[in-house]
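Supplementary Methods, section 5.1.

A reviewer requested that the exact input to the structure prediction be made available. We therefore reproduce it here, unchanged from the version used in the analyses.
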Amino acid sequence: MTSPSENLASLGVELPEVPSPAGSYVPATRAGNLVFTAGQLPFEDGELSATGKVGAEVSVEEAQKAARLCALNALAAAAEKVGGLDNLGGIVKVVGFVASAEGFTDQPKVVNGASDFIGEVFGESGVHARSAVGVAELPMNTPVEVEIIATTGE
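The structure derived from this sequence is encoded cell-by-cell as follows.
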C-alpha cells in the first residue's frame, strides 16, 4: 500500500506553500483527531486558475480543474497542521462551493474534480461524505472554493 505522499508524487504533483489567510482566520485547525480547513481557492503559483461563474464564463471542465487545485491547497493546509501529508489518516468530508450562473445545476460534477483528486491521493481512506453547493458569488470572483475535514493518522 502506497502512502498519500507517494501517490501525490506519482501524479507529478507537489504540495504548494499554504498562502497567508486573507482575513481573520487560520488555514487549518485541529480538534482532537480531526483537522478542519478553511475554504481554499484554486491558487496556482499565486494566481487564481480561473475567474467567473460556472455555466457562463467558466466551463464545467475548467471548474473541475479549479476544484482539484482547491483540494490540493486544502490538503497542503491540513498537512501543514499535522506535520505532513502522511500524518493524515484520511478525508471524511469535502464541502465545495460553486459560483453558479443562473440555471446552472451541475455543482456535483464540478466538485467531482476535488473528490476524484482526493481519491487518487488517499485511495480507500479518501472516500468521504460531501456537499456541493451553488452560490451567487465567491471571494475574488473565483468559480470554486473547497474545504475538507480530515482525520489524523493517530
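The chain has three helices and seven strands. These observations are discussed further in the main text.
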